[in-house]
Amino acid sequence: MEEISALVDRERLEGLLVLTSRTFAINIPMLPDLLRDGLTLGYLLLRNADSLEDAYRWPKERRLEGLDSFHDLMLHPDGPAARRFADRYSSIPGLEDAAQAELLAETPYLLTELAKLPEGYGREVRSHVARIARRMQLWVADHDDGNQLRLRRLQQLDDYCYSVAGIVGELVTSLIALYRPTLDLTRLLFLRTLETGVGAGLQLTNILKDAFRDHLEGRYYIPHEYLPIDGSHRVDRIRPIFAYAYRHLSLGIDYTCTLPEGELAIRKAVLVPILLAGATLVHLLDRIEDLFRGVEVKISREQVAAILDLADRASGENQSVRSAWRETTQMLADLRPDAAGAGG
Predict the structure, then answer these.
(1) Cβ(52)–Cβ(64) under 8 Å?
(2) CATH top-level class for 150-337?
C-alpha cells in the first residue's frame, strides 16, 4: 500500500508512545504505515482518556467534567477548544505522573496529526475514543466521594473491561479493515467475534498486576469473593481470575491466527502483547504470595527480549503461533477445567 501518511510526525509521535507505554511502544511501530499511524494516534488519545479516569486525587466531579469535555472534543474536533482543554487539564496538580500531564498538553497536536490521515482513519479513531470516554464517565460516576470503587459481580468486571479495553479491540479491527479493504468478509467477521476478548484479556492482566495496590487505595475491580485480602490470605481464591484472563488472552491467539498468514507485520504486532501478557500472568501466578504482600512483580527485560524473538519466529504460521502460546503459558493452561488432573 502506498505510504499516504508521510506527513505525520512519526518520530515525535512514537517518542510520546515510549513515554506512555512499555508494551505498546514495542508492538505498534511493527505495524505497516497507515495502520501504524492510526493506532499510534488512537492509543495516545486513549491514554489521555485513561489519565482523566485515573486522576484519583481529583474530585470526582472534575474527572467527570474532563471526560465529558474530551468526549465532545473527539466528536467535534476544534483547535481552540483543544487548546483550552489541554491548558486546563494538563496544569491541574494530582495526576499520577508527569508523563500524563505532558500527553494531555499534546492533545491539540494529536488531533492535528490525526487530521492528516485519510478521513476514514480519523473518523474511526475519534468515534471509538469518544465511546470509551463516555463509558469511563459511567464508571467514574460509580466511585464514591472518596474516589473508591468496588465491583461486586463478575458481570461488572466484564463490562468494565469492555468499556476500557474491549472497544480498543474493535478499533484495531476497524483500522485493519480500512487498511486491507480486500480482506475476506468471513475472515473479518471471525475477527469481530474475537476482538473484544483480546482487549479484555490484556486489561485483566493489568488488573491482576495492580490488584494489591488498588486494594490499598480502595479500588476493587475484582469481586471480593476472589480476593485474598480479608485476613485469610488464601491466595488460591484468585486463581480462577488468572484462568479467566488466560481464556480471554487465548482468544487473542485465535485472532492472530484468523489474520492472513501473509500479513506478517500485523500478525506479529498483535501477537507480541498477547505473549507478553501471558508471560506476565505466569510470572504473577508463580509469585502470587509476593504480589499480595505488595512486592512489585514484573517480567525481566531478558524475558521480554526472548518473547520478541519467539514472536518473530512464530508469527508467520498458525501452528507456530499456537505452539509459542503453549510454550509461554503452560502453567496457565493447567488451570483450565478440562486440563488433565484438574479438580472439581
Answers:
(1) no
(2) mainly alpha
